[in-house]
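Hi all, long-time lurker, first post. I run a small reading group and we've been trying to get comfortable going from sequence to structure in the token notation. Rather than ask abstract questions, I figured I'd post a concrete chain and ask someone more experienced to write out its structure so we can walk through it together at our next meeting. Sequence below, copied exactly:
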Amino acid sequence: MAISKKIESFMTQASFIRKMFEEGMRLKQEVGVENVFDFSLGNPILEPPKQFQTILRETIMNPPAGMHRYMHNAGYPETRSKVAKYLTGNTGTQVEPDDIIMTCGAGGALNVALKSLLNPGDEVVVIAPFFPEYRFYVDNHGGTLKIAETSQDFDLDLDSLDRVMGNQTKAIIINSPNNPTGRMYSSERLKELGQLIAQKEQRAGHPITILSDEPYRKIVFDDKKLPSIFDAHPNTILITSHSKDLGLPGERIGFGAISSHHQDRVLLREAMTFTNRTLGFVNAPALFQRIVARAQDLSIPVKAYQHLRDLFLQGLLDAGIQCFRPQGAFYLFPQSPIKDDLAFVNVLKKHHILAVPGSGFGRSGYFRLCFCVSQKEIETAIPSFIIAMKEYS
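-- Answer (accepted) --
Happy to help. Here is the structure in token form:
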């Protein structure tokens, strides 16, 4: 066999999300696009803002000399300055340009950070339910994944974290607003997390870094504001991308921002710049570094996603499906009416509804639905949810 046994195993257990997306493509060919309700993939439906389109055209039509050449592996100085200025204003914490590493999306930033932090066998804590790729990112760099559970309403469970974290813990990945639940952690709960980590650091004798994965940081509902992770714990790296807030998932542009209070701040700058290069990313895309430097204050209209959330959530409740009310992102994580979430997802598939089983996110008994789709698709799908639920009434 040409491929490694480990990769073969990972491919077998890997992303339910992609599998359902591919199943959707097959179903659409079979019964017609208009008859399939695909809620499997978080692919933003909203186009980038008009101001972004203007910036894009201006940059393409009036390129600075050498725009497509290599640059410093951490990114263009002017881009890092603009990002640092935006984060300083947004978080209330001074962020320096040298603490910004421009990357190929948030996934690139997470891999760059983990490669910089981990020794073989070091433990990385994730919080279930969690984005499935975290498992593979940690393995990429010789780490060991440890899973902490959340409370019934998907909030941080400090008792579970206390039990899971030990002397080998080197990092913890948090994701707020969360994929798949839409839960946003409060500033109070984040500070409690920081206090717990500080206790664990004293016992372990080394820093434990929070990797705060925040690609949905601007997609927050009901006029709430995302608390700053920099206020929770000094040893922190904020990681994000513009895939969701500007509707640019295909452009792979994001960054990591090291807290100015991280005790190994200078070393981390050097390490993440080095790993950005040696992991093969080399640097973030030049064109889009230039563009997002001018677009830090822009965002897709969040109210549009909030409206879709409200519409879909009410439809599920009318169908008798229980679901946590998301505070951000663009996912619903309803409770399956039967314990076997994969079986219920297959029932939905019979009615041409594509969802992702919660077991793919480390939480069985639930399933994920993406509401970054058209209003018509949600409205047309609700009767099919009602029919599916009648099988279990």
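A couple of things your group might point at:
The chain has two domains: 5-48+300-390, 65-293.
Residues 5-48+300-390 form a domain with the Aspartate Aminotransferase, domain 1 fold (CATH 3.90.1150.10).
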